Amino acid sequence: MRGDDHGMSGLPDGSASRVVLVGTHRYESFDDLPSVRANLTGLRDVFTDARLWGLPDEHCAVVEQPVNARQVLDQVRRSAERATDTLIVYFAGHGFTDDRTNDLCLALPDSEPGLEYTMLPFDAIRRRVLDHGSRARRKVVILDCCFSARALQGWMGSVADQSSIEGSCVLTASSETRMALAPPGEKYTAFTGELINVLETGVPGGPSLLDMETVYQQVRWALEAKSRPIPQQRNRNAGGQIPPVINTAASLAPRPAPPVPFVHTVSLLITDVANAPRRPEAEAAIAAYVRATPHSLHDPLFLMPIEDVFVVTGRGVVVTGRVERGQIGVGMPVDLVGGLGAHRTTITGVEMFRKTSNTASMGENVGLSLGGVKRAEVEPGMVVTAQNSVMTRTHFQADIYLLPTAKGGRQGEIFNHHQATLRLRTANITATMANFSVLSPGESTTATITLTRPTAIDLSQRFTILDNNTPIGAGQITGIIG
């Protein structure tokens, strides 16, 4: 099957593509993960299935129970050098963080707790994938391990100036502070099980080729509906448009959406949650709608957290960040919301990797030019959002979780009215956590959070708990107060 030479949208040419599947299911010093072995077989079957892609067997390398880091890196290097169309690298197993650098480390069969030098640093894989000897124009990295979103740190910046790389996508099973899940009794791990299901069964009414953005959304919604760890994704140069397989369900009618409008249902939850009990019927309607919607652009409420702010001659104030949801275009009116208040403005320009564009969609890293905005009115941590769609708050309820000490968490308990720094999207804000007695590392509880400054927040939004700028836990907003 030949790929499209004119962009990311064509099915990869199997003769010019390579897949590397790496997994460790049996360990000397950690709990075994039997489902990882099934993950490798399941993904190999998907990629070599003629109905889905038809990758030649010899182009799909499986590295099961690697004896050392070199075995993995040599295979990634060989595949990267031979692929001229698409390179896919997958890892499943235990993941840990380096205590000194906070970098992601992948556990091998003989790795030992606390000894990072016995593990495989993800950065070594990243370098092999992005090395100048790698000729693939499309690159996908998929990680199914704890704290896997730490792989996203620095990924895009390291390749920003390599013009020969047309697109890349990194998909992870969990956030940088969350563990991945291998449910007992299930054939696959939680994340890879949903990934295989989406690739095999397709998306009714979706695109003819399943691109990585559509795959990500379907996997995310399926995991959210089961209250399982939420995957993360980062794209570069339209990497979200890379299609790994054919959508076998494209010709089927999409599942009907529920009669309750999505935006209205969300507003009911946000408005009532502070003064009323949880509303199972509304939450069920949201979950049903999400599962029935085949593509991210069905969410009209644009939002982009601001990572940096610049003043560019001839363009004025430019903010950069990753589009969290929805779509934006030149000329669209938006709100700037956050610690410096709320301001109305209009998008006067969109730029992605030094190229101008008329629109930007969910998952893309962009620079947005803002009309009529002064530099003093905007700062990192604020959000650019569809008008009237987000409000700032200082009080909310949340489920919070502390990392175990062995996984990089703090040494002791925290108590009622504990002060910490919360990472809410791109904003670091001091907060007080109250209405609980004591919380030990490895445990979770419900708390009332008070922020020191108003911040744009959403119901169900996730955040990171920091101690001296080091992640020690995570949380999810369950109720908005006031």
TrEMBL record:
SUPFAM superfamilies reported in the protein's UniProt record: Caspase-like, EF-Tu/eEF-1alpha/eIF2-gamma C-terminal domain, Translation proteins
Keyword GTP-binding appears in the UniProt entry: yes
This protein's record includes keyword Cytoplasm: yes
Residues of the Translation elongation factor EFTu-like domain: 316-385
InterPro entries: Caspase-like_dom_sf, EF-Tu_GTPase, EFTu-like_2, Pept_C14_caspase, Transl_B-barrel_sf, Transl_elong_EF1A/Init_IF2_C, Transl_elong_EFTu/EF1A_C
Gene Ontology MF annotations: cysteine-type endopeptidase activity; GTP binding; translation elongation factor activity
Domain Peptidase C14 caspase span(s) in chain numbering: 19-233
Ranges of residues in domain Translation elongation factor EFTu/EF1A C-terminal: 390-480
Annotated protein name in UniProt: Elongation factor Tu
Record keywords: Cytoplasm, Elongation factor, GTP-binding, Nucleotide-binding, Protein biosynthesis
Species per Swiss-Prot/TrEMBL record: Actinokineospora auranticolor
Gene Ontology BP annotations: proteolysis
